[in-house]
Task: inverse folding
């Protein structure tokens, strides 16, 4: 696939390196001349030394034919405008923007940039998974939808303990995808009985996370 | 009119003063840098708000929910465009104006319904009009601006006067 990476900072550089190693084509747009030269020394001729927020250079980098444009500079306002210009001026197929301040996820969404990645939120997610946070955690949002994957551990006092899947009072829009028991994945059938210690993987609209929590966790 | 201005640089501060001193306007002005507020006159009745003009909480603090007009006047085109979009799309401010010095970006977002202006093209066009003896846009705007220059200059005592 072909990717245009706007911003050759730490994130942009390592992302591009990983994409190149995975066999993809990459073009980086980096404003700073010295940084651009350095990247060229490291990765070869995959850099344009130019501001990424100007349509001219986006077209030069091939945003119009790229499978995705990744706006990953350290400044949210730049990522927003880069993303919008890639859509407006280049008709980019797909745009993914890095959001540094998690508050701006809503802002980006309201401005038509649906796919955002917040490094802060990703880190928070990882930390939450590592820490014992009471057995209920949103694992990840599903892209291009308002859905998410949630993991819940069935604790001794859980309202779902020793109940069959269909008897668990989950909202209709939520579905149990799998049950992890003793390190094994079980398919969740309607009559699978949930035991204490099971970890349940649920697909659900983000909006009803609280109801899912209530049904599984109390 | 309730006005929120983001960016207390020379233009932002001048505009804040102009609006504050004329008619029934309530002005608040946002800037990241506290020292920028030194540009405001001592008798400024409006509210300086310290913070990031693209942060919704700071904008709320500046009274954007009751604002009739919003102007983003920082040095960054992208910052101005982001602030303007927040003002219009999230807070529904009726009149939103953004300084976008890159003429191409100014035009792109104008087509999206934003009132953008580029200092680059405004000044260039104006000066060309003055030079070519244009009787319409050139002299009038220049004259009004120069009157403001004189007024601002007259407010400051000269060093000689201060000593006395």
Result:
């Amino acid at each position: 696939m072909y990717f245009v990476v706007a911003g050759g900072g730490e994130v942009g550089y390592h992302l591009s390196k990983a994409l190149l190693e995975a066999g993809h084509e990459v073009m980086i747009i980096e404003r700073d001349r010295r940084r651009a030269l350095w990247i060229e020394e490291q990765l070869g001729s995959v850099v344009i030394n130019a501001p990424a927020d100007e349509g001219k250079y986006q077209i030069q980098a091939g945003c119009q034919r790229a499978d995705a444009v990744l706006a990953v500079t350290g400044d949210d306002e730049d990522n927003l405008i880069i993303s919008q210009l890639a859509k407006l001026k280049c008709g980019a197929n797909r745009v993914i923007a890095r959001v540094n301040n998690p508050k701006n996820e809503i802002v980006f969404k309201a401005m038509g940039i649906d796919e955002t990645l917040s490094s802060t939120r990703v880190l928070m997610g990882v930390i939450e998974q590592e820490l014992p946070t009471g057995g209920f955690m949103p694992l990840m949002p599903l892209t291009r939808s308002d859905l998410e994957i949630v993991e819940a551990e069935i604790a001794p006092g859980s309202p779902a303990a020793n109940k069959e899947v269909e008897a668990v009072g989950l909202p209709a829009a939520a579905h149990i995808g799998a049950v992890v028991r003793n390190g094994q994945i079980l398919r969740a059938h309607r009559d699978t009985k949930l035991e204490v210690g099971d970890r349940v993987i649920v697909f659900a609209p983000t909006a009803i996370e609280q109801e899912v929590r209530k049904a599984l966790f109390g | 009119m309730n006005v929120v201005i983001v960016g207390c640089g020379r233009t932002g501060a001048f505009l804040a003063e102009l609006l504050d001193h004329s008619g029934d306007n309530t002005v608040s002005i946002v800037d990241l840098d506290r020292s920028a507020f030194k540009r405001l006159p001592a008798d400024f009745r409006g509210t300086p708000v310290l913070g990031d003009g693209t942060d919704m909480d700071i904008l709320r603090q500046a009274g954007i929910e009751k604002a009739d007009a919003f102007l983003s006047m920082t040095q960054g085109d992208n910052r101005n465009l982001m602030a303007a979009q927040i003002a219009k799309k999230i807070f529904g401010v009726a009149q939103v104006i953004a300084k976008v010095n890159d003429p191409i970006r100014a035009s792109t977002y104008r087509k999206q319904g934003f009132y953008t202006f580029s200092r680059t093209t405004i000044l260039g066009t104006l000066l060309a009009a003055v030079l070519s003896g244009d009787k319409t846009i050139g002299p009038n705007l220049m004259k009004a601006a120069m009157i403001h220059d004189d007024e601002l200059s007259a407010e400051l005592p000269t060093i000689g006067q201060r000593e006395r």
Observations:
- The helical segments of chain A are 10-21, 33-43, 55-61, 76-88, 104-110, 119-130, 209-217.
